[in-house]
Amino acid sequence: MSLKDLPADARPREKLLARGPGALSDAELLALLLRTGTAGRGVLQMAQEVLQTFGGIAGLLHAGADDLKRVKGLGGSAKRAELMAVLELARRALAEQLKERAAFDSAAAVKDYLQLHLAARPHEVFAVLFLDAQHKLIALEELFRGTLTQTSVYPREVALRALHHHAAAVILAHNHPSGGVQPSRADEAITQNLKSALALIDVRVLDHVIVAPGQALSMAEKGLI
Hints:
Blueprint: H1 12-19, H2 26-34, H3 43-54, H4 57-61, H5 65-69, H6 77-100, H7 107-118, E1 125-131, E2 137-145, H8 155-164, E3 169-175, H9 185-199, E4 204-212, E5 215-218
Helix pairs in contact: 2-3, 6-7, 8-9
InterPro entries: MPN, RadC_JAB, RuvA_2-like, UPF0758, UPF0758_CS, UPF0758_N
Organism: Ottowia beijingensis
Pfam families: RadC, UPF0758_N
């Protein structure tokens, strides 16, 4: 069944305008973005299948362009581009929140922001949130890629970028592509090395956040900073 065959009050667009976006299911909201289905598969069915493929909205937001391309009906560039645009808007909205208030006072927003940026990466990425004296976001930079060890994360580079941004504090972050967010001994060692190095230039390490699809861990909350 296509959207036009549904009763008027059950069509996602009409329901949204009449009752607000909160009245729509995840599949209905996604169907509005997709607009059309494929041969023999209506757009609502397609939306439900996409959500099942990625484990819901959170998983979809962490999907990359190549992941979306493998889904039947998303091989074309238009639909994928629109979904990636929504993802980028979510990132920018979270970044604006962090710029308007102290990042350390909004741990949930920090985790969400970092998940959107890093969780879907197929390789390990080490990033740093540079913060001002009020702990508001100045910039997020990805500084290192590949398997993270004490020898692959250079404190000197992090210190130079902190000085460049005139940062007063930082939040460290990296992803675990294989899933799971428990810190390894290498993660703890990297954190302590950077904490010691940055202390020499009066830059505090507030946290080290580890992200994976659908989850994030704050080392500060675990008493590991």
